[in-house]
Amino acid sequence: MTKQLFHYTVGEITPLIDWAYFFHAWQVKADSAQGRELKDDALARLGMMAATVGADALYCRVKARSEGDNLLLDGSIRLPLLRQQHLGQDGFTLCLADFVSPKGSDAVGLFATTCPLPTPAAGDPYESLMVQTLATRLAEAAAEKLDLDIAAREGRTGQTAAIRPAVGYPCLPDLSVIFLLDELLGMNAIGITLTENGAMSPPSSVCGLMIDHPAARYFAVGSISEEQFDDYTRRRGIEPTRMRQFLRSVL
Asked: Could you tell me the CA-to-CA distances from 135 to 42, 168, 229, 250 in Å, in that order?
């Protein structure tokens, strides 16, 4: 397992920013006067730091096989996953493990990105929110850039679908799995540390999986039953009360 480090300047990743989430954070419409003003201000700030500020990324690709609703990563780390309880439009209940072969012939990517922008002076809510939203968008843009670079290096083609579910996404809602990913990634290599509740510091950081499969797609696990919660808690090996804290979004 070889870990790869990447550094991207703000100028490199600005074109990959998803502005929809930027406007959502500000609770304004993109086509409103306020929305256009905010974006102009954001782009001006990004332009000033284009060559001097950047984001760091960490990536490794590990052997993987599925075991029911679990993934076995690098032959040693068992990653339990959750399955949808209700049939989707295609008539299936999906789990991320469905996109990895049980034969041990597959591999998945693990990634983390971070973009710690300078903390603004206290007492300026506008400045604080602007820095916070830009830093988060840049960390996500760095993940997009990393995915594109890895795809080019690994010869991934448009015929193979690729998804990049981050911890906390609807298809990977258990926030505690970040501890398992950190065992393999060692996110401190790019300055990311974890709190006891799994929060990343700097907060403008992203961590997750890269999965290639012809049928790979995003989905929402949605609400889970107490039966699945009990099964998942056993697989995860975490005390139920604490597990509920990590699974609030689907209970």
From this structure: 11, 18, 34, 27
Between CA 27 and CA 78 the distance in angstroms is 39
C-alpha distance across the termini of the chain, in Å: 35
pLDDT in tens, 49-62: 888 889 999 999 99
Residue 59 φ/ψ, nearest 5 degrees: -145, 140
Mean pLDDT (the chain) is 92
- All structural domains of the chain, each given as residue ranges with its CATH number in brackets, are 3-250 (3.10.196.10)
HEC profile for the chain? Answer: CCEEEEEEEHHHHHHHCCHHHHHHHHCCCCCCHHHHHHHHHHHHHHHHCCCCCEEEEEEEEEEEEEECCEEEECCCEEEECCCCCCCCCCCCCCCHHHHCCCCCCEEEEEEEEECCCCCCCCCCHHHHHHHHHHHHHHHHHHHHHHHHHHHHHHCCCCCCCEECCECCCCCCCCCCHHHHHHHHHCHHHHCCEECCCCCEECCCEEEEEEEECCCCCCCCCCCCCHHHHHHHHHHHCCCHHHHHHHCHHHC
8 Å CB contact between 55 and 114: yes
* pTM for this model (two decimals): 0.92
The whole-number pLDDT of residue 160 equals: 59
Provide the token pair at 135. Answer: 């830093």
| Amino acid at position 220, single letter | A
What pLDDT, on a 0 to 100 scale, did the predictor assign at position 208? 97
